[in-house]
Amino acid sequence: MALALLGGACNNSGSGGTGVDSAGASGRDSAGAVGNGSAGTRLVDETGALATWALLPFTKVDSVNPILTPGNGRFADPILHRQVSWEEKDVFNPAAVVKDGTLYLLYRAQDRIGHPAGTSRIGLASSQDGLHFTRSELPVLYPDNDAEKKLEWEGGCEDRG
Q1: pTM greater than the 0.70 cutoff
Q2: What is the Cα Rg of the chain in Å?
Q3: Domain residue ranges in the chain
Q4: Which residue has the higher pLDDT, 128 or 161?
Q5: In sequence order, what are the residues at sequence separation of 6 or more whose Cβ sits closer than 8 angstroms to the Cβ of residue 51?
Q6: Contacts for 122-126 with beta carbons within 8 Å, 24 or more apart?
Q7: List of long-range contacts for 107-113, beta carbons under 8 Å, 24+ apart
Q8: Nearest Cα to 55, choosing from 16, 100, 103, 88?
Q9: Could you count the other beta carbons within 10 Å of the beta carbon of residue 148?
Q10: For 51-58, which contacts have Cβ atoms below 8 Å and span 24 or more sequence positions?
Q11: How confident is the model at residue 43 (pLDDT cuts 50, 70, 90)?
Q12: E strand segments, the chain
């Protein structure tokens, strides 16, 4: 199974964010990763030594870059009482786990409805090869008419406090 670097595994449809590619971008990021823009990525620590924690090798696959983009998933929003396109605006902030040979990717998706920039919900996608994903039709976490509504609506499920 190939595994893509997921620090950038999603793309937020051109609204100012960066696409997530399958092996890391060129240049050094805050974790010390250095992308060489070729078939592989070299990870180094702050001293320039090869990182010992890295799960290597990674292979950049431009043909599936980014691996997720905004989608056309619709579901019946329990607060608005109507169908909404829950992942039409942005997809970003992935987290991945492998279980029984399948890669599962949780990702945040936004519609164009909520304030300030859309209501966020958490989606789930799965892959057998780490490059081609099948999305679940419905979000797995979303705001509802419950005791937490006052904290979740209209912004939705966020990844910050």
Answers
A1: no
A2: 17
A3: 67-161
A4: 128
A5: 32, 43, 44, 45
A6: 122/157, 123/71, 123/73, 123/86, 123/87, 123/91, 125/68, 126/102
A7: 107/9, 107/10, 107/68, 108/157, 108/158, 108/159, 109/70, 109/71, 109/73, 109/139, 110/156, 111/84, 111/85, 111/86, 111/87, 112/85, 112/88, 113/80, 113/84, 113/154
A8: 103
A9: 10
A10: 55/3, 58/3, 58/4, 58/5, 58/23, 58/24
A11: low
A12: 27-28, 33-35, 41-43, 74-77, 82-85, 90-99, 102-110, 120-127, 134-135
Rounded to whole angstroms, the Cα distance separating 106 from 95 reads 5
Residues 23, 85: Cα–Cα separation, whole Å: 29
Q: CA dihedral in degrees (155, 132, 126, 113; nearest 10)?
A: 20
